[in-house]
Amino acid sequence: MFTLKRIETANQDVKKSRFLAFAAPIADEQAAKDFLASHSDPTANHNCWAWRIGQAYRFSDDGEPSGTAGKPILAAIDGQELDRVAVVVPRWFGGILLGSGGLVRAYGGTAALCLRAAEKIEMIETVRATVALDFSDMALIKARLLARDVAIINESFTDKGPVLTVEVRKDEAEAILAMVVDLSRGKAVVSLDD
Predict the structure, then answer these.
(1) H/E stretch holding 52
(2) Percent of residues, the chain, with pLDDT higher than 90
(3) Which Gene3D superfamilies does the UniProt record give (predicted)?
(4) Which of 122, 146, 177 is the last residue of a domain?
(5) Same domain, 66 and 138
């Protein structure tokens, strides 16, 4: 899965109607609502939109015939294998009716045009883990974790040694945590955070 690196725009004219798409990466539903509110144009006849965050998604036809705007925009998001993305497409009516098929092509096409041009970044699923070490193992294990692109989120100390909170790729978590235990000769205590 991918998300967008930044807000992108695209526009096209279809039979004198103007369609302008805005697409953005979003973190949660509130961010989607904020983006839609800030990028909907009150002068437009319609502000149709869709967003997806994992299995959650929403879309709106904003007065267009049912299924002709929001669903095609969502289909454009899904067609690009995107997640955590919101798209709003304002339309200024040009006087010529497009029909249901024309609306589907115009809204979905404008959204797809915008998303195709956007710079994408791969979404990597991560998990957090806690690693309790002896002081003598700290330098070596931190160096190896950093070499494997493991993010050290927090570092605290107890009387027994450092406690690291790390963020690792989910698909590499088991191997990396096993490496920590091996490097500490079995003394490190590791646990995945829920």
Answers:
(1) strand 46-53
(2) 77
(3) 3.30.70.240, Impact, N-terminal domain
(4) 122
(5) no
